[in-house]
Amino acid sequence: MNQEVEQILNQAIDGTKITSDELLLLLQQDPESREAFAIWQAARKIAMESSGGMAEVHAQVGVNAGPCSKNCQFCSFAPVNNVFPEEKRYSTAEIVERALRFETDGANAIYLMITADYPFELFLEVSRAVRKRLKPESILVANVGDFGDAEAKQLKEAGYAGIYHVWRMGEGETTGIDPAIRQETMLAAKRNGLKVGTCIEPCGPEHPLTEIVNRAVFLRDEIKPVHTGCGRRLPIPTSPLNSLGILDKLAQALRMAATRVFFGYEIPWHAGDHSILGGVTGCNLSWAESGSNPRDTKADTIIGATVAERRDAFEETGWKVVKGPSVMFAGK
């Protein structure tokens, strides 16, 4: 066992924040090594203790599918991928029905997701309709394009507790968005009383480990989100990125666990692989999905699991799933 790795993990378990250099060292370990499995164990211990052994299952309704001008190459909505030549919008009634179904199924929070070009005023209108039909205590989270203070206030007024927003891997190179804009959206949300959930994604084999470290430092030290995560890129067959391949699950497990260790006890919730492997490596948040999905080539996703399936995956690895509204997004 590498003594430096062991020392880093022991310090993290004792509550000491690890440095960016220490995170990089953890990420550099062989995914099949003793060190990697020790990182898994430390990540799970920190997650279990900080969350009281609890996991959450959230649910997302994709509101529309179609070509998006931001042209993110990993996304099925990118025109370069030629998956959705025309836009499909679900009706307000369909969106409300899907949100209510997730509420009945026991999702701890319900997200509404749109592409960057979907009219913001229409999104607010749909959101108010959903908010009106959900129970007052049910949590709504917005997964939308970039915005400023005015839009953040409107989201808050429409009944949102927070947002899901990501400074993506390869931002500005494989996407049409300036990284600074992604960062500023998260800061605008925080300034206006919206909680921020986020992730380090979508990770591909070509991304340098230092890019993961940069994201992690920004999120932990500047954003202080209610949840973090680390996700791998799933291939869109027509994407220019498809030839670069996909991280295997052991390589991804190391990334999930190492970042979980880095975020420590102050951020109890972490997402990653939605399979049992995620629960083993300290991930205690996952999503069920309905409607559009940027990782799917179908307008009504076939890869988004149900709330019950996500709950079962956690319970099979020793987690207890929160009952009722989300703990991380609740409160002021």
Task: Describe this entry's structure for a reader.
By secondary structure, the chain is an alpha/beta fold. It has a single domain (54-248, 274-321), classed as Aldolase class I (TIM Barrel, Alpha-Beta Barrel). 39% of the residues lie in helices and 15% in strands. It is built from eleven helices and twelve strands. The strands form three sheets. Strands 1, 4, 5, 6, 7, 11 and 12 form a seven-stranded parallel sheet that branches. The chain has a three-stranded parallel sheet with strand order 8-9-10. β4 (110-113), α5 (120-133) and β5 form a beta-alpha-beta unit. α4 (92-105) packs across α5 (120-133). The protein is globular and about 55 Å long. 51% of the residues are buried. The model has no long low-confidence stretch (mean pLDDT 97). InterPro entries: Aldolase_TIM, rSAM_sf. GO terms for molecular function: biotin synthase activity.
